[in-house]
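Lecture notes, structural biology module. Today: joint structure prediction for complexes of two components.
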Amino acid sequence: MKTIGKDSRVDDPMADRRSGIEEFWRLLKQNRLAMIGLAIFGLFFCIALLGLVLTTGKNPAFDPAMVRLQEKLRPPLSRPNLETLRSEEVPRLGVYLFGTDDLGRDVFARMLQGAWVSLTVGFVAVGISVIIGIFMGGISGYFGQNHTSMDTLIMRFVDIMLCFPSFFLILTVVALLPASMYNIMIVIGLTSWMGTTRFVRAEFLSLREQDFVTAARALGVNHWRIIFRHMIPNAMAPVLVSATIGIATAILTEAGLSFLGFGVPPPHATWGSILSDGKRFIFDAPWLTFLPGFAILIVVLSFNLFGEGLRDILNPKLRERY
Amino acid sequence: MLSFIGRSIVQKTITLFFVSIVSFLIIHLAPGKPSQVDPLNPKFTPEIVERFRKEFHLDKPIYVQYVYFYRDLFTGKTVSWKDNQPVLGKIWERFLNSLPLFIVGTIITWTLSFPIGIRSAIFRGGFYDRSATFFSYLLISVPGFFFAYVLIIFVVTHFHVPVIGLKTFGIGDTSWLRMIMDRVWHLLLPSVLGATGGIAILSRYVRSQMLEVEGQDYVRTARAKGVPEEQVHYKHALRNALLPFVTMFGLILPGLIGGSVIIESIFSWPGMGRMAYEAILARDYPIILTVNFISAVLVLAGTFISDLLYLVVDPRIRL
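The predicted structure, tokenised, for the full assembly:
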């Protein structure tokens, strides 16, 4: 199209040009569920960041570990009994926004602290799995033509990993390792890269036959540069979609582990562990079950909706004609 | 056909062999020893630990342990470290408890997903379709343990029936009708919970298959020649959309053993998942490894069956 002169008439009836990002944004705005997902995700990100700032340090604004035994199981929005509390024990907002748990700890502060755990576990675990997946899938798809053994080896390894029941495997390894947040992230990451590997490999198999790859090869660009600079950007669409949904799955897995008691070790609150601690009081203090439960539900739902929206947007075949 | 069967059996056996090695390595190379489970127990003197290690070959190098373990497994002699019971017998007993959950859950999943998915596809873009889509995302996203408690609160406060466990504790001998109703109530909640994720995923899949077929030329032809709408949907479209689901019968096989660790521990259901969870807590390696091995066998057998079914039902695939 570039060959047609600028002032030529042929130019006029053409659709106006849009950059990739503009087009993406336009399609995203049409997809209402995906927009809601993105908005909730943005909100959650801010809350988690704020939570990290407000609940850590020597003298945090909201202390999630402050025990007030005289203020056990107060319902949400109840006022603290000022006569029995010392001045530093009074909650910062002057009210227990989300109530207190069986040790009189402020559930609002604990939820804030837990938000950061969910966020980091989701992102770091998926980051690990995406990096491994891209690397393995890239090698297997790109070199598979000339080194069949490498391709076979990687794909058989994927088959082997897929034979393990994933939650059971994660549970086993997490239970055997010392309890820490980093172990959970690493274990979830190391057990969920198989899907990405398959996607990337499938994309690479078709990409490597295309002209721009042949051209790059003819120019003498080295293999790694072709893989990382030319091919991976073109193979990102399915990876992004599966990564977004993977974050949702990782958050659910972490919550499940915390619920079973294999999560981040105790003084630290996570949404799963708040729910798990509260399960003994489901009839007396239902907020201990419902608040973290709905928080997990909403965050996971927002990632799932956004991921499905991304799938529609990034796949031109699924797009409705306009 | 025969060569395909032969080839995949060989390939799957090799995969299984490596799965056994990997799972063995994961368990045995992880930090911590089974003898450290209960260091404060006064009965756990160093001599007992030593005898224990000798008894279960823990003092041998790891590859010898591997050979011993799988030799015992195949001859059915593996025993649990916790109570010295044969592992296969224990698993079988628990499996029989999990089986009703699995069967009821599968029936619920398959009978609900198809009508929901088909209706969504027929009224694509309408109110029904959009709310079904939203609800399926909701069901995928809800943490199982949270949903379990919501349902427990609901059922217990509205119907006043106990739901925890296999049956009501101490129900004794009442009339058989009460007994059966009691069992049904206890079975219902965990199976519904086990089915939720499946309903959401399967109904979405039915919908997309149906949509794909509805766009085909032969469906348009059927409409053009004046076939009634009902017949177009259920005779021309649905029959062809069903093809991939035949193969899914193979893929539900692994669900037999996976069970749900979380759901079974919430409902104190003495099934496979709970046994596996207890084995992990007690570092009962033989049980963990055996469960892992059997589930790998089921995964491989499942993919094999689904490949075979595809060969049988789809005449376009010939090997």
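Point to remember: Chain B touches chain A at residues 14-16, 18-19, 22-23, 26-27, 30-32, 133-134, 137-138, 140-146, 149-150, 152-153, 254, 257-258, 261-262, 265, 276-277, 280-281, 283, 288, 291-292, 295-296, 299-300 (CB under 8 Å).
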